[in-house]
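Q: LPS-assembly lipoprotein, please. Structure only.
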Amino acid sequence: MSWSERPPLPLSRRGLLLGLLALGGCGFRPMYGEGSPARALQGRIAVGDVTRGETPDRMTYAYRDHLRRRLGAPEGAPRYRLDSRIRVTSTGLAIAEDNATTRYNLTGVATFTLTVPGTAEPVFSGTVDSYSAYSATGSVYATRIAQRDAERRIAEDLAERVITRIAAQADALPT
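A: Structure for LPS-assembly lipoprotein:
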């Protein structure tokens, strides 16, 4: 009998119980569980300025919208204010024989600062990055739509990474 023909080993109740006890003993706790510091931040962070260049564009709107949907609208006075700056660079990767670029790689970086409203001193700050790519076809319209989609994906991923970083540090934030 070969390894691929053997039936899977049954998981005994004792093994399952020991596994759960070991997981509980290591200090693991769900990030968004009942009573967790990260859950207490829901609806307590106001999304402030999001800058990328001179004027807001589709990417800053997508980033801000994703943050607002995930963080919730503050009811009353928010505990924190989140300001961000986004930078995106585009690099041509594939060049055809006629010297036309057919594939682009986008790199997005978001630098964020969490402050208490009314103060200038940040309580938490950081930088996150994300990557995406799109193909440039013979159609200008299709290429532009692909570029917008890649920028939207980066904006939403950057926002999600910022939220995760803040949630991971929620118990260290001042109350």
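A: Brief note, in case it's useful. The radius of gyration is 22 Å.
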